[in-house]
Amino acid sequence: MQELNQTRIAQRLDQLTELSVELGGTHDTDALLERILVVAKSMTNADGGTLYRPGADRRALDFHLLWNDTLGIRQGGANGAPVSAPPIPLYDADGAKNLASVAAYAAHFGLSVNIADVYQADVFNFSGMVEFDRQRNYHSQSFLTVPMSDHEGELVGVLQLINAIDPDTGAICAFSPTDQRFIEALAAQAAVALTHQRLIRQLEELLESLVNLINIGIDEKSPYTGRHCQFVPELTMMLAEAVHNTETGPMADFRMTDADRKELWLAGLLHDCGKITTPVHVVDKATKLETIGDRIHVVDTRFEVLLRDAEIAALKQKLAAGDDPARLVAIDAELARRQADLRDERDFIRFANVGAEAMSAEHQQRVREIAARRWTGPDGAERDFLDADEVTNLTIKFGTLTEAERKIINNHIVVTIRMLEALPWPKHLKNVPEYAGGHHERMDGKGYPRGLTRDQMSVQARLMAIADIFEALTAKDRPYKKGKMLSESLRILGQFALNGHIDPDLFDIFIRSKIYLEFARRNMDEKQIDAIDETLIPGYKP
């Protein structure tokens, strides 16, 4: 008999050791909890078992797993039927501890409760169990209830085993002191594993919250950039899934795990985090003369001064002309011509300030000629009509940014990389800086900030570059441009595929899988979605 008991103890030790190894390598909480219950039942030869978890408000114990071999019950967990039993309250309506329930008692005091025969026990309320037995023609007898607490004494669960079966006779028996010690050891190991998983989950949630915190800051600073930070990861993941599902062609070997997806999603969310340091008057510069405000109004005021100067000069001439009718008519005609020229120049400067189209050399020269006009300022000093900075801005050939401002904008990716590389990323997220920091690189090495070529970039960074450009082309909420039509956006993107700007293989999947159309229907204005003839898209061969 002693030899048999030693054999059983050795078997239990083996089970405990194997479970310890499994607990360290399992990341699926449901699978972990099921394994804990299976080993606990096996160790004690129990007919049934229940695993409770504290509810969200920690005022009740929720049934997470409810198993019974004799009754064939498998409730809870990933694969079981839904749990039909209601939660066990830890407190009554007045806030007092519930000590009538054995599971609640164990949870409150952190003590194991071993009952040989519940029908003979008068300490706890087993009315629910009695009703359970009556309805199912079952007989509950021995109970072993063990709390699971973390290193700070906080409850993480309660393990309850029902009806120990004597392996020799098959009769229901009490859980032995040895059973209790082994289950307490198992519960302690399980609590460590559950706490470990909970801490990992909390750290991941904290990381995601910090990411959202950065994006909230960007969104508050510039709603346009905020929306961009939401749409780019969405489009990136759509394209990544399409590449993942590709079975032929150059990208057929690309595959992602769930961990890879999370890493790419975080990189997408953070791809423009450096813009939190970019001055808002540069990020959202809607016109060429805009700084904190649009300086076109200052220029308008100068034109108004010139218009009034011309009128005052004409009035003075009329006073000097006396009653000469011909001279008065000539003065009025010259005033009208002069003011018409000024209004025409004012309208031209307003047009030049918009920066919507490429500016011709002739228009740039006209700005310089207007700039050279002399006027008298409020201090009485005569000066050029436009100063050097105004001329520099008004003669910008494309868009609204000067070279200096474009460098400021481009610097956001340098800041993004610095911010992300400063973080101690865990192994499964170590590529976030590379993915996020590469979306302005080009396949031909002419991108920035590092001038990487296609072979030096990951697939993830290359596909994020496509998502970033396409979203920027189609966005209709930018203050400095209108959202382009879908066909024009694809034409531009196709040219980029041909000239070494973006990856042609990924662009092919982008078109072939109709990712562009799915994204457009989700997020673009219906008026922008025109008919697409894919055979006419540059760089795409159907």
Order of helices and strands: HHEEEEHEHEEEHHHHHHHEEHHHHHHH
Q: What fraction, in percent, of the residue positions are helical? A: 40-55%
Multimerization status:
single chain
**Rounded Rg:** 37 Å
Number of strands: 10
Unreliable segments of 5+ consecutive residues = none
Structural class: alpha+beta
Shape by Cα distribution: elongated
Overall pLDDT score: 87
Percentage of residues in DSSP E strands: 5-15%
Give the number of helices. Answer: 18
Q: Describe the main β-sheet briefly.
A: 8 strands, antiparallel
Q: What is the end-to-end distance?
A: 79 Å
Describe the structure.
- A hairpin with a 5-residue loop joins β9 (374-376) and β10.
- The model has no long low-confidence stretch (mean pLDDT 87).
- The chain has helices at residues 2-25, 29-44, 102-109, 127-136, 177-221, 223-244, 258-269, 280-283, 296-321, 325-354, 361-371, 388-394, 403-421, 432-437, 459-474, 486-498, 504-512, 515-523; strands at residues 46-54, 60-68, 73-76, 88-89, 113-115, 143-149, 155-165, 172-173, 374-376, 382-384.
- The chain is built from 18 helices and 10 strands.
- It is an alpha+beta fold.
